[in-house]
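Researcher: I'm preparing a figure for a lab meeting and need a structural model of a single chain. I don't have an experimental structure, so a prediction will have to do for now. The sequence is pasted below. Please return the structure as C-alpha cells so I can convert it later.
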Amino acid sequence: RGFFGCSHFSKANAFLASSGQNPVNWAVAP
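Model: Understood. Here is the structure written out cell by cell.
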C-alpha cells in the first residue's frame, strides 16, 4: 500500500519506456 506514496512506479515506467519497453499498467497488475 505504501508504494503509491512515492514515485517508484513512475520511475519504473520511465525506465521501461526509455528502454523501448511498454510501461506497466500497475492498476491492473496482479
